[in-house]
Design a protein that fits this description.
The modification 4-aspartylphosphate is found at residue 55. Keywords: Phosphoprotein. InterPro entries: ANTAR, CheY-like_superfamily, Sig_transdc_resp-reg_antiterm, Sig_transdc_resp-reg_receiver, WH-like_DNA-bd_sf. GO terms for molecular function: RNA binding. With 191 residues, the chain is an alpha/beta fold. The protein has 2 domains: 5-106, Response regulator (Rossmann fold), CATH 3.40.50.2300; 132-190, Winged helix-like DNA-binding domain superfamily/Winged helix DNA-binding domain (Arc Repressor Mutant, subunit A, Orthogonal Bundle), CATH 1.10.10. 62% of the residues lie in helices and 13% in strands. It contains 7 helices and 5 strands. It has helices at residues 13-25, 37-47, 63-72, 87-95, 108-156, 160-174, 178-189; strands spanning 5-9, 29-34, 51-55, 78-82, 100-103. Strands 2-1-3-4-5 form a 5-stranded parallel sheet, sandwiched between helices. The longest helix has 49 residues, at 108-156. The model has no long low-confidence stretch (mean pLDDT 89).
């Protein structure tokens, strides 16, 4: 695993110090430390770490709430630390978008594999979101193009392929994308 920039949040300074030491000995950089969820979210927003390691039970804002904010804003993957392994706590963490969960005491043998899982899942989720965006964009473009072809077909008695060819030719002649040409045809027809 490459060296990571990490934010740690735990209201127990001894635990923060132990986790920091494990991380730094493995070549990672702890770029920020917090004692509560509010500060953890602020640090994550400001420092844009590769990973956030948060305790669940913290004052002012718990780790699950902080994890939800960090996840919703797509800042970084979150690994939760806790002394509690109840199923309701695990469910809350999962619902908040937490990608890995460790029960204290933290040990190197558990920490580093959990970090890899969290980062790998986060990257997979980002790739899926990118693909979904592209698919939605392509679908919207197809709908726009189909509508523009329909307008040309109705107005000029063209076949679908002839309408598409006209859009292509105009696109090349005016150095505009097919989408821009299709949108212009639709705008002109709705005036």
């Amino acid at each position: 695993m490459k060296a990571l920039k990490i934010v740690i949040a735990d209201n127990e300074s001894v635990i923060r110090m132990d986790v920091r030491e494990m991380l730094e000995e493995a070549g990672h950089e702890v770029v920020g430390e917090a004692v509560n969820g509010i500060k953890a979210v602020e640090l994550a927003r400001k420092l844009k770490p590769d990973l956030c390691i948060l305790d669940i039970k913290m004052p002012e804002m718990d780790g699950i709430t902080a994890a939800k904010l960090i996840t919703e804003e797509k800042i970084a993957p979150v690994l939760l630390l806790t002394a509690f392994s109840q199923s309701d706590m695990v469910k809350r963490a999962t619902d908040a978008g937490v990608l890995a969960y460790l029960v204290k005491p933290v040990q190197e043998s558990n920490l580093f594999p959990a970090m890899e899982v969290a980062i790998s899942r986060y990257q997979e989720m980002q790739q899926l979101e990118d693909e979904l965006f592209k698919v939605k964009d392509t679908l919207a473009m197809r709908k726009t193009l189909d509508r523009a072809k329909g307008i040309l077909m109705d107005a000029h008695g063209l076949t679908e392929s002839e309408a598409f060819r006209r859009i292509q030719q105009y696109s090349m002649a005016k150095r505009k994308t097919i989408k821009e040409v299709a949108e212009a045809i639709i705008r002109a027809a709705t005036k």
